[in-house]
Amino acid sequence: MLAQRAYLFVVLEGGRPLAGGARYALDGVTEVQVVRGDRRAARVEPHANGAQLTLELPSPVLSRVHARLRLSSAGWAVEDAGSRNGTYVNGQRVGQADLHPGDLVEVGHTFLTIGRFEERADEPPRDLDAADLAGEPAGFRTLSPAVAARLDELRRAARSEVNVLLVGESGTGKEVLARGIHQLSGRPGPLVAVNCNTLKEGITESQLFGHVRGAFSGAVADAVGFVRAADRGTLLLDEVADLGPTAQGALLRVLQEREVVPVGRAVPHKVDVRFVATSPRPLDPASEGDHFRSDLFARLTGFVHPMTPLRDRREDFGLLAAALLAKAGVTDGQTPRIAPDLAYRLLTHGWPLNVRELEQLLTRTWLLAEGGIMSGDPRFVGGGGPPAAPPPARDLDPEEQALRQSLIDALEAAGGNVTEAARALGRGRVQLHRQMRRLGIDGRRFRS
User: Fold this and answer.
1) How is 298-338 classified by DSSP, letter by letter?
2) Which pTM does this prediction carry?
3) Which residues 6+ apart lie within 8 Å of 320 measured at CB?
4) CA distance linking residue 84 with residue 66, whole number of Å
5) Is 51's pLDDT higher than 50?
6) DSSP state of 281
């Protein structure tokens, strides 16, 4: 039996992007109080009409008591508690606002959202922090209950001998998840990856099964081939839909007989290989135009796992961003920060190229960061540029507002030429670029 449960998600901390995200169960909670603390933590205490969850966030731009979220018969609403830097809903500063599914609440450069999910009623709701997932295999880390439920099923399949097919859009992390499956399997052999569209008709069996020296022109040495290289391990068939007819027939024999015959030799080799395949689309041998063999399909699809695109994993955004920044070599000692306007754009982009696109954008933005601040107008790889409508500018103090207006005036007068605008203002070009990024000014808007 399933039950509907609500969670409060810390989607992204702009001031601490390496912290990842977190989630907190809202069972019985009727009020959430967001306060400044020494570390990220949450506690639940009795309240007048239920329970109160106090969320502490270690942000210097957060007020001591910054905002409150309250539950009524109409749903959740947010109320600013007289904070110094304001509370925002979907980029707009608010004093009080009703919340709808998917709304982003920004408090002190930290983005929150409330989500409802179906979970098994006999399992208690569980708070979860990114740090709690550090020991999970690659690809199996998630804060989303919906994604976690599917990954739990895959985890059980990974520990068996069943072959697995991962189906999903490009860039969703199919190879990363395949490595996690291999890790969970406990198989002592290696994971060997083969890109199926590189298997060439005419030499397919040599590539897959290996050959002996002299078996054909150019065979100057023995080769074990992909299948034997993966003995006692896992063979990853990436883009399996691209397999040609010869390769499909050759692999079917391996799956049926569990042995291979190297080219130039008559004696078969027994192999112990587990197969994981990936495809950007569901395979359907029954459909017209799909040339994938139904018998091979049946043997490769013992368990089919649909990949979740990044646009449907907003709850995991901070988790993924932290992992990608760490992969790029970013450390806490470098005090990385993501400016609020950039964070808002990242969280509202559609990500057609998924995690691969996010990785490229974060890496590029970090390389251009000054003083550890990642800011500016991102160039989305898969979206043809940034969103047409930029997010609303954050409220500035009078001095910053005056500076922003002077920069805009100078850029308009110079037709977007930053060098000319800097000269007119008596500043250096690099200094002007830095101020433009900090104040959310896109110089391209002013070009003739």
Assistant:
1) HHH-SEEEEPPPGGG-GGGHHHHHHHHHHHTT--GGG--EE
2) 0.83
3) 310, 313, 355, 358
4) 8
5) yes
6) S
